[in-house]
Amino acid sequence: MTKPPIINLDSLPEPEHNVRGSKYESFDVGISSLIGARKMGYAHTLVLPGKRSCPFHNHWEEEELFIILEGRGTYRLGDEQFPVRAGDVIAAPTGGRETAHHLINDSDADLKYLSISTRSPTEIVEYPDSGKVGIRSVVAAADGSGVSRFRFRALDENGKVDYWDGED
């Protein structure tokens, strides 16, 4: 019998506990591989009160969507902040720093949400608060090899590095 492309949120495997510094703490489960997804990414995230799951960032290739399942929080998008609650569906479109985003659990209860995203073999992510840029390139390989990841800091206040910088 073929495994169905279905999973109930009540039967997700043990989440990965991610902690970084005093701002970031979440419990995350990637769902895509569990249901055989190939072109879309799916994840379940629980963010503890007063925490965030990831740094403020924007994508140039992959679009995201969040569905708030439980709790309340704040969606930071560019220079704005919006209150969110259970039942809200939130778009995180591609683009420059004006599309940078993350969810903040500024409540006294857990914040649970589903993340849904496109999957691109190449992705560029900017982190405006820290001045970092991330690049990922994937060469399709069944064993997961062929993934290259780079992170670096932009060198000037505009987040740009001159083409000839460091060249003789």
What does this protein structure show overall?
The chain is mainly beta and 168 residues long. The chain has a domain at 16-120: Jelly Rolls (Sandwich). 2% of the residues lie in helices and 46% in strands. The chain has one helix and 13 strands, in the order ββαβββββββββββ. It has a six-stranded antiparallel sheet with strand order 1-2-3-10-5-8. A hairpin with a 2-residue loop joins β6 and β7 (80-85). It is globular and about 55 Å long. The N and C termini lie far apart (62 Å). The mean pLDDT is 89.
Lateral arrangement of strands in the main beta sheet:
1-2-3-10-5-8
How does the helix and strand content classify structurally? mainly beta
CATH topology of the domain at 16-120: Jelly Rolls
Name the CATH homologous superfamily of the domain at 16-120. Answer: Jelly Rolls
Number of distinct helices: 1
Q: Any idea of the CATH class of the domain at 16-120? A: Mainly Beta
Task: Please describe the biggest sheet, giving its number of strands, its sense, and whether it closes into a barrel.
Answer: 6 strands, antiparallel
Helix-strand layout with pairing:
Elements: E1 16-20, E2 24-30, H1 32-35, E3 40-47, E4 58-59, E5 64-70, E6 72-77, E7 80-85, E8 89-92, E9 101-104, E10 111-118, E11 122-127, E12 132-138, E13 147-153
Antiparallel strand pairs: 1-2, 2-3, 3-10, 4-11, 5-8, 5-10, 6-7, 6-9, 11-12, 12-13
